[in-house]
Amino acid sequence: MSIVLPPREVFETVIEPSQDSVNDSKQLGGYGLDTYIKTFCPPEGGMYMVLADSKEPMSTHPYMNAIKVNAIVKKQTLLLFQPFSKIFSPLKFLENYLTLYCRMTDSIYRSIPAEADGRIRIPYLKEQYYDPFCRELWRFLYHFLMNIGISEETSYQFGKRIATALQYDNAYREPLKDIFSETNKEKISRKEIKRLLNLFTERSIGLDVDKFSSAIKVLSWMLLIPKVNKAFYEALKKVDFSKFQQTKADKYHSLHRSDYNYGGLSWEVREAEYQKQRSQYLETLNIKQ
What we know:
- By secondary structure, this protein is mainly alpha-helical.
- The protein has one domain.
- Helix content is 51%, strand content 7%.
- The chain has 10 helices and 7 strands.
- The chain has helices at 64-81, 91-109, 132-148, 152-167, 170-180, 190-203, 209-222, 226-237, 248-254, 267-285; strands at 3-4, 14-15, 31-32, 36-40, 48-51, 58-59, 120-121.
- The strands form 3 sheets. The protein has a 3-stranded antiparallel β-sheet with strand order 4-5-6. Strands 1-3 form a two-stranded antiparallel sheet. A two-stranded antiparallel ribbon has the order 2-7.
- Strand 5 (48-51) and strand 6 (58-59) form a beta hairpin.
């Protein structure tokens, strides 16, 4: 089975192998799919993977080493935010806490091993190649943290790491798109956040909801603080809320996922629709299933 990687140019950093460590394997190393056709990056941004048997391109291009280290980052991210549900911390502590988090994730991402071709691809992408959802969340976090008094550097780096964590984790990224598709920018409030969190909990099947929801509850509580509330809504004005919502392609691929009830529909209902659309698409290609 052939295995493929995202285009080399999408990464911020690619460490070339030394002459002695070059791997002569013909494998590209990465996300293995027999139906893989290509990965393309449109002028408006984002990165999409085209599969022979899929009607719509898949958002992002995950690859095995990035997924492995990203699982560690995801776990640490959820654990580090749990203390905020129990204590109130001053701004200086928050700055130090976020800086520590950035250093921790950086050490993990930079520990990624070389691929089959000998190159080490640090999972950070150039900003324009992130999924639109991830890129817009990065922008929101940057403005929000800046508005409450966190330094520009820490705000930027923290947003970048959250964007990177979700870039390689569709188990959380896609359900978030589903939830944001149930609302709009004008409706966002503490009451609406609580409603969306309840909806997320109801639709979740295989996700660790408790650790994730603790971070959302902290944000909801923080909105009671006038300065934080103002910073939140000022940051919200800076983003394109539609980028947080599902695209046509996202909705198509969510039909096949069994870890979350997208659109409030069971997997059985969605799977039947997925097979119907997939069969129709394959018929147009004259491909026998």
